[in-house]
Hints:
The protein is an alpha+beta fold. It is 31% helix and 24% strand. It is built from 19 helices and 31 strands. Strands 1-9-10-11-12-19-16-15-14 form a 9-stranded antiparallel sheet. A 5-stranded antiparallel sheet has the order 8-7-13-18-17, with no helix packed on it. Strands 20-26-27-28-31 form a 5-stranded antiparallel sheet. Helix 6 (374-386) crosses helix 19 (694-708).
Amino acid sequence: MLRPRLIPPDDIFPPNPWVLEAIRYDANLAQDLTGQAETMFALSNGYLGLRGVAEEGTPVREAGTYLNGFYEHRPISYGEHAYGFPTLGQSILNCPNGTAVKLFVDDEPFVVPGAEILSFRRSLDFRSGTLSRDVRWLTPAGKRLRLRTLRLVSLAHRHLAAIEYELTAEDAVTEVVISSELRNEQPLATDTNDPRLAEGFVGRVLHPTGTRSEALRAILSYRTRSSGLALGCGMDHVVAADCSLITQPACDDDLATVVVRGILAPGQSIRIHKFLSYHYSEAASPEQIRALTAWTLDRAVESGFAAILAQQRHDVERFWARADVTVDCASPRTQQAIRWNLFQLLQASERAEGHGIAARGLTGRTYEGHYFWDTEIYVLPFLVYTKPLIARSLLKYRYDMLDKARARARELGHRGATFPWRTINGEEASAYYAAGTAQYHINADIAYALRKYVEISGDDEFLLHYGAEILIETARLWCDLGFFSERLGGRFCINGVTGPDEYTALVNNNCFTNLMARENMRYAAETVRRLEREHPDSFAVLARRTGLAATEPDAWETAAERMYLPYDERLKVHPQDDNFLDLEKWDFAGTPEEHYPLLLHYHPLNLYRSQVIKQADTVMAMFLLGDQFTPEAKRRNFEYYDPLTTHDSSLSVCIQSIVANEIGLREKAFHYFNFALAMDMSDIGGNMMHGAHIAAIGGTWLALVYGFAGLRDTQGRLTFNPCLPEAWARLSFTLKARGRTIGIDIDHRAATYRLLAGETLAIWQADERIDLSPDDAVVTRAFRIPAGKADLS
């Protein structure tokens, strides 16, 4: 069911470990790849994102400019309404686009698709965090010109983007007009049957609240009608040329322009540095938001483009020092894809403080910019081990949503808190409850991520001040949602839920959900007792704030101890839920290839009646809670569920790869990894045009570190059991844990562990303890299990 669509041709997109670039222009391919290229070449810093549209603005699918968390309410319409259905959704907005710099040569517009191109190169440089373009062309009058641009979204200054634009007349006198724009133009409402896509809005979304224009600077300001967010966006310019120039600024509510006119002699150039600033706020007045925007532009002009670029290179270099993963193999495309994926994680998270991470980051509007469980399970581990402060910020954002989660629980008739399945502002935005609200497992996913963060970072202060309150309210939810079933001998059951597999909905005793809920309640009870013992004053405050009863931790532990987990004695597998094995298996042989993904071609009821799986569910549980399954159980479960899985979700193959590796299915693990790695660059799902799959990209890192390096971190103990693919000669990466930095280097003979920073740390390879210390900086241990062999002991 895995379907590669388009592998970039090497003669246009050569494999390069540090750059994704197109080295020549093919008009036919460019037309086919317009949307994909906008995603492939997108830039972001976690707060501000720009899709990779050319400065001329054409060809274009969507010239997206997005701010994390900047949204408008969208009414949710139902054919039949019911109690508790959300009435308002949230949808990320497309902000005014400032990347447009339009060129007219001898009064004729220049666009690449219509030009006679002499040479072309467009490069996303992973080392500098920049997007550059170098184009030479011949005009209809026979004149040769060269255009070079360089674009960045600043990591140091989250509200800033910058463009360097240089035009050179090579061999003839040329009249040129350059029009730099800041334009508000919202995309049209989407007419589609794909529920994953953003719907868009009908009518005006951003309502003007004033402009500010002086010299080569223009600032526009707006307010959303329903969400009440104030937006300021501005541009400023520094212009230099080898000839005299005339500049003409203009500004109205929805369009600001700075027009530069000049006559270039052969060899002469015009150079423009364009700075873009974006701010939004719930509370700021129009005057205040314009002032904030202006201050960012002031700093940028004073610093200059060269200094901003140097800082960008420095910040990206620091990212690679902590987060790079290197693979020595025969395929150069592998390392390029790994680094493109890692670069997307940087772009989605680095300046996301105060927000979550949307399913497509800031590369597209698909899923309306909503935050899902994806962040906690697929992205947070990468951040915990590479930049824990960002992981902390993301968990703090969940804490900031806690009051709204409590309100949602009350609305649903529950105690505790019910975190929204998909949201921007903390309110539930999922219109389809069976695959949304019913996915209660998000509560346990957040608790699971919280535990991983605390145990690996050692940040007990976060647990004390924020995490414990989350744990209390999520444990309460499970205790209220479930019940002790007399029919099942007093076991604790949780009914009417949906697990990660959205092709099986509203079931009783979903195995994944029950296992994760059990861990949630156990950790909550453990944490509460620890705080009461070690921090009695803080515990007293917490107990008062949450109304914690003395009997509650006992109740959580009892429910966890008596949790019902489905098990089939005949097949010796854990059924995905109580009735999954009673369903008829899906007719895969009779399903046309073009009918995948199934969700776009079959009614949900057809899927719910069958044994067919969208993504890892029980297999996911075997990865997250691997210590609770025997090796034999893992193999039997995997072999039962793997053939039933369509991988219609981009989140599936990375988890399948990890578990396949663990049970000794090395070729399958490598096969699944390669699909996970190429999910976007080869457009396997056929929807890269709508944005990068950030969680699947995080899953690629999981498959490298938890899969091939064999990392397990149960209760904070770092254990490695590496098994390198035969096609690779070496795998190397670094991890941060409890204030230490560890370097891991694996080949087919041994693994080398280095303590790069910090004090002594104990790790394990399989069952062998290794003490890393500054005095013994390199420790090498031969593999206990030869590469390629299964460890089922």
